[in-house]
Amino acid sequence: xxxxxxxxxxxxxxxxxxxxxxxxxxxxxxxxxxxxxxxxxxxxxxxxxxxxxxxxxxxxxxxxxxxxxxxxxxxxxxxxxxxxxxxxxxxxxxxxxxxxxxxxxxxxxxxxxxxxxxxxxxxxxxxxxxxxxxxxxxxxxxxxxxxxxxxxxxxxxxxxxxxxxxxxxxxxx
Length: 173
Prior knowledge:
- With 173 residues, the protein is mainly beta.
- The chain has a single domain (15-172), classed as CATH 2.40.50.180.
- 10% of the residues lie in helices and 43% in strands.
- The chain is built from 2 helices and 11 strands.
- The chain has helices spanning 73-76, 160-172; strands spanning 19-26, 29-34, 38-43, 57-63, 66-72, 89-97, 101-109, 111-118, 123-124, 138-144, 147-152.
- A 6-stranded mixed β-sheet has the order 8-1-2-11-10-9, with no helix packed on it.
- The radius of gyration is 18 Å and the shape is globular.
- The relative contact order is 0.25.
């Protein structure tokens, strides 16, 4: 009987994931979002709190006359809070909530890094961490210059209850 050594399969997350991504940091970790979802990047500004919202929904801002809900991604992902620096900013993105609702939302990040052009070969499927870890909001993992960047599915960063709270936040003001 002979034994074979099988090479580990490198599962590519999908050929349609290639493209341009805006990368940003939360602590020591690096994340990326499809640049087509990014509307603008602004300095951290005064945020008006809205009562009875989940802790990670920091409130709303007035962006040129439009009320934009703001999410603290550190809190959303269960990371420890960090001191605000001059690099802390809000990335305004458009997310899909439900079937036909698109909402501009601000994401507080520690700092914006760069825009990368990723190919399908740069992206691998999200590893299976078991049933205890929710990775539904991750599209995949990109390897860039020896650093792993987690590709976020912005439409899934919020669960259905949180999306409802986000919609209420925007309409309450």
